[in-house]
Design goal:
The chain has about 230 residues and is mainly beta. It contains 2 helices and 12 strands; from the N terminus they run H-E-E-E-E-E-E-E-E-H-E-E-E-E. The chain has helices spanning about 1-25, 155-160; strands at about 45-55, 60-65, 70, 75, 90-105, 105-120, 120-135, 140-155, 165, 170-180, 190-205, 210-230. The strands form 2 sheets. Strands 1-5-6-7-8-10-11-12 form an 8-stranded antiparallel β-barrel. A two-stranded antiparallel sheet has the order 3-4. Strand 5 (about 90-105) and strand 6 (about 105-120) form a beta hairpin. It is elongated and about 65 Å long.
């Protein structure tokens, strides 16, 4: 009798433990869910292509050939005619491309090149520069730019025929503006206004006509540009 009771007790105990273990909730390890907000990766390399206009007037800053003297006619005169540099306003085309590297969030340094048209002169400026974005996380942010370099002047056929020698010079161009993000791929719209200074030199020696002239020019323009960055 005792043996049967012990057997029955063990049978119920085993079944009770089996049922309890089946109803027991197993311990689970939480699996981290991916973040739904994907961060936009900032590009290390920056490329900005811009075009626009240079507004201002053309005037020499120094003319060491005034007055001129004609040996053949023994007459004194002014050359070039100072009235050629009146208050005429000019609107000249400008193009520029900047390629740089982000050294810090919102700060890029690099090089730029392009061409500027100054009435009868075409100058290719080559410079180093910096691009700053004040609010890089915002869709619309103020920006500040600065370029410094040297402008190479192109010689035309008329210069060669008249034996005119032209040289470029120092170029400075600070500017401020806005950057507008166009998408999450890093593309953006750039609008800026600045002040551009370009130095140049023109040498016109005509010994057969009895005059020697060197003219130093400073092209000072208000620059207005619009472009895209990527």
């Amino acid at each position: 009798m005792k043996t049967r009771l012990a057997f029955i007790f063990l049978f119920f105990a085993a079944n009770f433990n089996l049922v309890f273990s089946q109803n027991k909730i197993p311990k689970t390890i939480p699996i981290p869910q991916p973040n739904s907000t994907q961060a936009i990766v900032e590009r290390k390399f920056v490329h900005i292509t811009e075009f626009g206009f240079l507004l201002g007037k053309q005037a020499p800053i120094n003319n060491i050939a005034y007055p001129a003297y004609d040996v053949k006619s023994a007459a004194s005169y002014y050359y070039p005619n100072p009235y050629n540099y009146g208050d005429d306003q000019f609107s000249n085309f400008t193009f520029q491309h900047f390629s740089g590297y982000n050294i810090h969030k919102g700060i890029a340094v690099g090089v730029s090149g392009g061409f500027d048209y100054y009435r009868a002169n075409i100058i290719t400026p080559m410079s180093i520069g910096i691009r700053t974005i004040l609010l890089p996380s915002r869709r619309i942010s103020p920006i500040g730019n600065f370029d410094a370099g040297y402008g190479f002047i192109w010689k035309n056929t008329n210069d060669k025929n008249q034996k005119i020698d032209k040289h470029g010079g120092l170029m400075l161009n600070p500017s401020v503006g806005l950057k507008i993000k166009l998408g999450d791929d890093g593309s953006s719209l750039h609008i800026n206004v600045g002040y551009k200074i370009q130095k140049s030199e023109m040498i016109n020696n005509q010994p057969e006509q009895g005059y020697y002239m060197t003219e130093y020019r400073s092209f000072e323009r208000l620059s207005i540009r619009i472009g895209v960055g990527f």
